[in-house]
Structure formats: C-alpha cells, structure tokens
C-alpha cells in the first residue's frame, strides 16, 4: 500500500500527514509526501510587493526571491516531515514538482501508484470554507480521498 499525502506547508497538510502516518503504521504502508510549486503564486506575490513599494521595475527581482523562498520553505517543511515519519519507522519519501497544482496533483494521484490520497481540508490561507484546490480535484481523484479537518 502506498499513500500520497498532499503538502502545501499549511498546518492542515501537516495534520493530514499525521493521519497518513497513523494509517501507514497500521497497514505497513509507504508514504509519499507530494507538493507542487506554482510559479504563478511567486509572480502574484512579487507583483503585490512591487505595487506596495511603488517599484514595478523590481518585480522580476522580487519574483526570483519569492520563488527561491517558496522552494526553500517547502523543502524544509517536507524534510522535517520526512525525518519524523522515518523516526516513527514508516517508509517515507518526498516528491516536489513544478507546475499547476490541480494538474500535477491529478496526474500523480491517478498514476495508479497509490491506494489512498490524504490532504487537508483547507490550504495555507486557513479560511473557514473548504479549500478551493480541494473543490477542483476531489471529484477527479480515482483512489479513495481522505480529507482531514
């Protein structure tokens, strides 16, 4: 059994990873921590920084800095999760890809490699309604989907 855990760095995805860990221990399953980095997010943040500072000519520099910070941040979060899982005796690996989250998640989840997909109900914004990514992918994921609140 292999469990795909969708990680975005939020507390909700970390909570989902803990639930996946519990299942993996009981079922002797392997966990794959999966994250998608989307350059569009870095562009949006960079544009907002440029707008706030009134220096649109610096947007490209902001974009590169934001992109590097995004990569570093998710690598740190997933590295901590990986070490924790391994410390608990669970076979675990990390997979980070670049692209549009919805497309990359559906591609990976529906690859035929996984018995279960686990994700948090909310994203990084932590809003009170179900996350927009969840709304986009839930009906299109073929393996069972565990949504953690």
Strand order of the largest sheet: 3-2-1-4-5
- What ranges have pLDDT less than 50 throughout 5 or more consecutive residues? none
The total of beta strands comes to 5
Query: What is the rounded Rg?
Result: 16 Å
As a percent range, the share of strand residues is 15-25%
Q: How many DSSP helices? A: 5
What structural class should be given to the helix and strand makeup? Answer: alpha/beta
- The helix fraction, in percent, is 40-55%
> What order do the SSEs take from the amino end to the carboxyl end, as H and E?
EHEHHEHEHE
Mean pLDDT: 91
Query: Biggest sheet, in brief?
Result: 5 strands, parallel
Write down the overall geometry.
elongated
Task: Note the gap between the termini.
Answer: 23 Å
Describe the structure.
It contains five helices and five strands; from the N terminus they run βαβααβαβαβ. Helix 2 (39-53) packs across helix 3 (59-87). Strand 4, helix 5 and strand 5 (145-148) form a beta-alpha-beta unit. Strands 3-2-1-4-5 form a five-stranded parallel beta sheet. By secondary structure, the chain is of the alpha/beta class.
């Amino acid at each position: 059994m292999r469990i795909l855990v969708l990680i975005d760095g939020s507390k909700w995805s970390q909570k989902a990873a803990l639930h996946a860990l519990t299942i993996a221990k009981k079922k002797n399953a392997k966990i794959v921590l999966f994250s998608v980095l989307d350059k569009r997010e870095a562009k949006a943040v960079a544009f907002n920084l440029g707008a706030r500072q009134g220096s649109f000519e610096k947007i490209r520099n902001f974009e590169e800095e934001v992109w590097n910070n995004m990569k570093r941040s998710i690598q740190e979060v997933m590295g901590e999760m990986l070490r924790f899982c391994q410390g608990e005796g669970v076979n675990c690996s990390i997979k980070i890809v670049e692209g549009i989250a919805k497309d990359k998640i559906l591609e990976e989840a529906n690859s035929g490699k996984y018995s279960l997909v686990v994700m948090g109900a909310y994203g990084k914004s932590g809003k009170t309604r179900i996350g927009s990514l969840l709304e986009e992918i839930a009906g299109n994921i073929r393996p069972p989907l565990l949504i953690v609140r």
